[in-house]
Design brief:
Elements lengths: L1 H8 L13 H20 L10 H14 L2 H32 L1 H15 L3 H12 L3 H25 L3 H9 L4 H38 L5 H10 L3 H29 L12
Helix pairs in contact: 3-11, 4-5, 4-7, 4-9, 4-10, 6-7, 6-9, 7-9, 8-9, 9-10, 9-11, 10-11
Length: 272
């Protein structure tokens, strides 16, 4: 029985769309595309307003084979990864500090909450002034948007630690570092990965916002360029590549979570 349970827990992870659970999503996507195609043809919608899915698909293929999209895709991808890494370090560091210290919680958390209420789009011009038009300003913008979900989930994970386990470690005269690594950290990991799943998508949004404000390269900049010449099919093509990037990054985080924190899942995350 033990061997069977272990095998079930450690079974190979597969993306949701390769399992029966992903079948409804695939069906809904096909139906939505069919309705889109039929609506455009039935109501004779101009291509400069909403292009047909077939037109968008042709443009996606053209962008790929021409090699035009790949440099922009790579630049945005690097901005997202760098910004997300910064958000993880900052979110985990502050989250652990606040979660373990009520005094620091009372002193710092209200300030962080106040900062979170500021629209990040309003900060983007300042980041351009401070960090320039290159990678740094986009990565910082991505980090600022992705930071808060990670912070909140780390704090929530630490605050929901089973008190009985803490009492047991105390009775065993465990050192604070042992308590953290043996009890608090394992209990926090499911919450952390819930925050990371949201944070990686927010990092992508932050990078695009930064490119909208000031950049000549990247997928966000490409959207602005094509919007200026009313290339709607081209804009839809870039949006499709953005969706692919976001999906792949989210699946990567889910894969790491399934290998790292497979024993437990948090009830309801705080990212709303």
């Amino acid at each position: 029985m033990k061997a069977s349970a272990t095998t079930q827990e450690l079974r190979p992870w597969r993306p949701v769309f390769t399992t029966p659970r992903g079948l409804p999503a695939i069906i809904c996507t096909i139906v939505a595309l069919a309705l889109w195609q039929a609506s455009v043809a039935l109501f004779d919608v101009p291509a400069y307003v909403i292009p047909a899915p077939a037109t968008v698909a042709a443009r996606i293929y053209e962008d790929l084979v021409s090699g035009l999209i790949l440099p922009h895709f790579w630049i945005t991808f690097v901005e997202v990864i760098v910004g997300f890494a910064m958000a993880v370090v900052l979110g985990m560091g502050l989250g652990v500090t606040i979660g373990l210290s009520p005094a620091i919680d009372r002193a710092i958390y209200p300030l962080l909450l106040a900062f979170q209420t500021i629209p990040k789009v309003a900060i983007a011009p300042l980041l351009i002034i401070w960090f320039g038009y290159g990678l740094h300003s986009k990565a910082v913008m991505a980090a600022l948007i992705a930071f808060f979900p990670i912070l909140v989930n780390v704090i929530a994970g630490l605050r929901t630690t089973d008190q009985r386990r803490l009492l047991l470690m105390k009775s065993l005269r465990a050192r604070p570092l042992q308590v953290f690594t043996k009890v608090r950290l394992p209990g926090m990991l499911p919450y952390l990965f819930a925050g990371l799943e949201v944070g990686i998508v927010f990092a992508l949004i932050g990078a695009i916002v930064g490119e909208f404000v000031g950049s000549s390269v990247g997928l966000g900049s490409l959207i602005i360029q094509r919007q200026a010449v009313i290339d709607v099919a081209g804009v839809f093509s870039v949006l499709a590549y953005l969706s692919v990037m976001g999906l792949l990054l989210s699946l990567a985080v889910k894969l790491i979570a399934s290998r790292t924190a497979f024993w437990e899942r948090p009830p309801e995350t705080t990212n709303r």
